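ugh finaly. both done.
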Amino acid sequence: MYCFFLLKVIYRLCVVACLSIGLSQIAFAMGDPKSMNTDYDQSHAINKVQKARERALKLANGGDAGLVEAIAVDQEQLEFLKRRGIEELAYGNDSLVDRELDLHRDLAGFYARLHNKERALDELERMEMRADVPLIARYVRSAPEFAFLRSEPRFLAFLARLESPTVVWHGTAFATGYKANLTVEERVAGLSDFWARVRSGFVHFDNVPNLDWNQKYLEFLGRVVKSESTIEYYDTLMQFAPLLRDGHTNIYPPKELFSHFYTSPPIRTDLIEGKVIVTAVLDKSLKAKIRKGDEILAIDGKEVHQYANERVLPYVSSSTPQDADVRLYSYQLLHGDAKQPVSLTIRTPGGSSSELLLPRDGYLPSDGLRLATFETKRLAHNIIYLSLDEFEDDEGVKEFEKILPDIMRSDGLILDLRQNGGGNTKFGYDILSYLTDQPMPLEYSTYRIDDGYMQHIAGDEGFFYKRPVNLEKAEHYSRKEHFSGKVAVLIGPKTFSAAEDFLVSFDTLKRGIMVGAASGGSTGQPIFISLPGGGTARICVKDDRYPDGRKFVGVGIKPQVEVSETVADYRVGKDAVIETAVERLSQD
């Protein structure tokens, strides 16, 4: 017993010692400033090397003598990058790694122009110490100075190694085309690829702390093996991604199956005060059957909430409860097979009920009624209103700039983002830059770096994060004029993704008030992968937060002024959110 106790004590001491060593290794690998010993910071080191590279490239235009001098300049910079303090800086800054790659590439080109084959190949191969990148291979293949190497076995082997990531990540074995029945091997491969990519790069496991991802993989493995068709297979896969509870992590079927999964009658619905209300009828042929303001009581004979929870919820990838409600009752409620009509039980505002059998398909495109994406109007108290329903393109920026003269003469501005599902964050920043002369505060973004080496030194445990280099500093816009008046931004659960990026900067700047309800609570950068049979998936691999580190993914951004919509207001055309915003902006 005593010996066993002593062994346990010795073991624990060893573990503590190893952990201490491991943590110091982790700090070094992640670029802990305490491990640095240099007079340079990252930006100064990058600028020094870049200026020297530019000088070398100019020298290289001076014939053989200039090439020799250029080689000396670049080699001096490589020695600089190998200095202990500078080399450590590179662990915290990808741009320094890129500069080393650039130097080796430049040197390879200089030696090639001198027809020094062996030294050119040496420099090309040294690039592999930092990265195997297909983009570099494409450049080297097309660069004229390497033309005389294109039949060299060593050169061809170098290109093949640089192109190997394409085979690993995007090989055609998994990305097979559509067919009605996939092999069991293809079905298992698709599930396994998604599971593995999530496990290695997904950034929001903290939002699902009780999810045993490996156990769920085993459960779904049995289900996909039993799938008898591609339709059944994707029906199963599309229930796998929602377990992660992330609005930017989804599995999509092949386009050949869109009509089976995604067809719905041209009407829109919303959950208001717990009731499913028709908020738009987008086809003239339906207007005699169903109207705005009608309530949906049941679908296909099931009470509407029961139907949503049983038939729709398993396919909903959402980050927050409010995000789930939007997807359940607004976006996905009536989705189904184009060949199958949907039965609705509706109740009019007057209280009468009726049964409708609506085809999901067969509506003429010419009958579709478009909803305005950008609406502008002047409200009471000289307040300008602009709805920005998407950031997919720069149309919203153009609309804002078109009315900017009116905005400059107004006493207040309301930007309505309640229907904005996102797009490109840049377009939101473009608009916000007209409302402030301050640099644009950017989100605090990280991605996972717990690769095989990090797992080894951490004892196969832990997630480790790093900041993207290009997102470390606030972005500054130069505008000739800025609107300095009062601003209100209207938000709700459909405010999502890039629209929330806008809110983070707006809120951090303290530029105005947000009015409405909490946003959807999901943004980030997804990667896209191809699946067997023509389907696709995306996985969120970037975690975005407020600049001070506050989370909003999985929570939502809350307004300073909360306003709840009511069915009664909707039916009489009253927008309490806009009215509240006008009231607040008109106050001194």
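ok and the 2nd:
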Amino acid sequence: MATRKEILSDLSSKIAKGNIREAYRDFEELPIVDQIAVSISPGVGDAIAAFEVAEFGRRAKTNVQDKDYLGAAGNRGLQILSGISLIPLLRFLRGAKAVAKTGTKVAEAPKKTDKPPVEEPLQLSAPKDLPEVELPEVLPFVTKPVDELAYQTTQPSLPMQSKARKFLHGYYKKLDPDINELSPEDWVKTLTDPNNEIPLGELRLLNVLDELNQIHPKLIKEAAGSEKISKGFLDNYMERQQRDALQVRGAPPGKLEAPDTTFANEAVKRTQQQKLYFVRGAGEQRTTPDHYRDLVYSDGVKGNNAYAFDGVGTFKPELRLQGLKDNFAAGDLPEDKMYALSPEIFETIEKGLKELNVQDTDTFADIFRVQSDFMGEVGDSRNFVNPKTEADKIKKILRYNKFVDEINPILASSRSMDTFDQSAVLRMNASNDVRKLGVNEFTIEPKDIEAITGRSYKESLDKTPEEIFYMLDETGKKQKYVDVPNNPEALSQAYFKDLYKDDSALVDLKNGALILKKAVVPKMDFSGKFKIDPYFEKSTSNEMKLPVRFNVLQAYKSGADGVHIGDAQANVEGSPSIILEKYARGEKEIDKILNELGITNKKGVTTKISGTGTEYDGTYLKFTDDVKKAIEEQGINAFKLGGPVDIDKMLAEL
């Protein structure tokens, strides 16, 4: 039998799709207690009541046409009652039996142990002019084209692929076709399986995981208590989470940041464009204005909240090299340039470009000035929340809970006052210590009581299942446990959970013995610190990953012949060594892109020039036919696995 949550979810879904008549038919077939629950629920109950006004009026008209005047009078009366919202009230009164004068208090619940009353639904005349409605067929999962799985990145709109959704659709790992439904927890286990190579950062961005890489509360909420969700449900959920998760916006003309700064490559300066990258969960916490502080887009997005920004220009490396050589031979270069260049340097550059068969007509996109005020503020002021510290806290809390399991049987069976006094001191110290870790809530399960005492947990309750059934919530207007299955065990367990989930660490067993409750692990404390962002790796964020991936895709789409990234511009601007390390990560990202495209160690695809001290140093990617074909068919993922995250290892060890 379906739970009330499932009933409400099904009715809500049908109403949202416009199938109100079908929803009402299902509603009329429910037991009266479930009709009560539906009638007093927000949204669904209102829609049902509104439909009843028209439905009973239509039925009355049908009765008159069929000369069923008594039925017509009854339905007309029901239409009037429904119109003033009295039918839901009558249903509630039949179930609850009595309400208080004020509407906020109810009469004492009956003390007898009879089962809650169950009445047959109203026997209304069925409409004769409606055909039978077939239930919709459950359709199989439909694989979508790869472009439909991408993040739409606003301005410019270039689709970057979602590796998580590509996995569900079988584009790079074949998911068992028989797997169409799993519990939310099992879906998370599947997605986080290291063998499936889905970046945890992307799963955090898509609200599948939280900051501790555990199942996200939002996913649990949207599953609405369902034991299983379909692959289609999960895919639709992730598609919704993609919206505005990643945004790439061009800096408008006149809003470029320091466009006249010194450039290592004047050709790049003349063709420069700047972009800002916005990543949900990174940048919104910033408090110190820096670059693009005066840039506000028409939809209110502030440039100062960007996760990272960059500059991109174009140049013809082979043609420019020929010009440099000619000017060098003629002595027609600035003195510092003449001093820095030599025939050996030209030879090194020529050798590197020759490996890619670069022609004098080839145009390369040059990625430069990749920076992140977000990372600057993290480093200068607050630093990230330390996942290791949080993992250590969890480990200590779990140790406390293990201690609770070990000592509770001793406490429950203690007969000696001396032993009791000693254990009291011990347990109070333990609970105080765990509170220092941020614990402010404790809980105990029915099975814990039964394991400790050897008796049913129901003996510790002060209410019968019938009394629990009739309890109202804090508003005094609806049943407190309306979403709990209508059986004694479910009602008792729900009440037990509420009764003992509080800030007290102790439970009185009613026989003079006190036992400890387990600690509820608190959420991470982000006060005064930054949350780890979706591109967080090891102990910091890799802010080079998104700009490099986006620019490779943009260069390919714009018809460029290749991409170059190096640290020459960072050196010219006098950037610290940490920036140069980031550029090295940016160069490595080129290799990661090729690896996931299935292009590895192929000659004529990439080369690295180093040691020349010129703008030519760095990594070059040539868009060969193989590279073009791979990008066209597979796209470029917004995320790619980086190094292992420290917290994952620690949590696995707990």
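summary for the 2nd one i guess: Residues 59-138, 416-420, 643-654 have pLDDT under 50 and may be disordered.
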